[in-house]
Protein: Leucyl aminopeptidase
Amino acid sequence: MPLEFAPNSADALDLHVIAKGEVEDWLAGQPDRVRNWVTAQGFDGALGASLVIPDANGHPEMALAGYGTPDARRRTRYVLAAAAVGLGRGTWRIASGLPAEDAEVEALGWLLAGYGFSKYADQTPKVGSLIAPEGVDAARIEVLAAAEARTRDLINIPTEHMGPADLEQAARDLAAEHGAKIDVTVGEDLLKNNFPMIHTVGRASASAPRLIDMRWGDSGPKLTLVGKGVCFDTGGLNLKPGSSMGLMKKDMGGAANVLGLAHAIMALGLPLQLRVLVPAVENSVSSNSFRPQDILTSRKGLTVEINNTDAEGRLVLADALALADEDKPDLVISMATLTGAARVAVGPDLAPYFATTPELANAVATAAVTAADPVWQMPFHDPYEKMIEPGIADLDNAPAGGFAGAITAALFLRRFVTDTPRYAHFDIYGWQPAAAPGRTKGGAMQGVRAILGALPELLDL
Structure:
């Protein structure tokens, strides 16, 4: 189903949102027929509970959605989405019980409950339509839902149909949709145009490496988004075991997330100049794969010793970040499924991020709470700089020892953003490991709504 709100309709049925412990108060104002039905069905307002109430002729008249307890709500991002599936088809109008401060998040959650990845088999959930709650900016919420659906689809599509050329086409489709300009540098032209590390990482693949460069807007502050587009990661010559390779179609999750964010920015018409850079590669194994102990020279001129070919994401991002930095934008943000260390630190649900200024860090953290888009700040810890300096080259792509892997990766990336004071890096997971209300198992959008919410303050929009 389209992730859109239903138009106001006389046929819509009232939906009453009732917290656990408040059912009796609501029933006190209802006729005996309704009280008897609700009591007989055992509806208690628990989170995720739903009940359709029939009229005297047995036709649906209204419905109840459980809003749970405060503790249960703290543990669930989209409360109404938990009840939406149980209500089935139909059109619903929130009649009572939904706190105004929760309306935007819950409305978004309802729309996302209707998402299903159906490219190969129909997985459309049986979720009814919702009329936008009073006071909610329906158009904005629909844009957010569309951005997330786009992001999830891109990650969910396997590499067979989402290799570097396919990712380029997805970016071209997005550019055409919004009238953006796009330029793509492919294969040997990467060397001619000084993107040596993007070329090196992707040269072993049958699908040529490329750098996607999209621009939109001609006035206002400059924002550049950089997304890791490793469409599949075998690990290269440092080959991953099969158990670690199974989810590597999602290693372009950073690219998918920045394209989703770009869609939201352009669809909402934010008054800024947007640039999106996506190094799109596949880290494959062939006779021309790059090797451990190779030393690469980056676009910025910094040399990098390769101590693990499976730490390739930071290499392709480095060339893209160097290009971004040359333009001296007001803000650079990179997003990548970069390190297992970040997953160990905060798990799959939080998006850890690094920021070069307190203003930037605080704006993202504040917006994340409002948007129900959980993030967690990690430090650019300067004393760890020596861990990424191997001596034989300027930088080490995979420091030994196993400590602080997410931080050392972020410090590595920061070396390529020297002329832009405000830089944030998001080390996301990009995957929902188990289904939850409003979040199907599979590709995930993380940190995007937090960034979007922070932009007005950061760029004075």
The first strand starts at residue 13 and ends at 19.
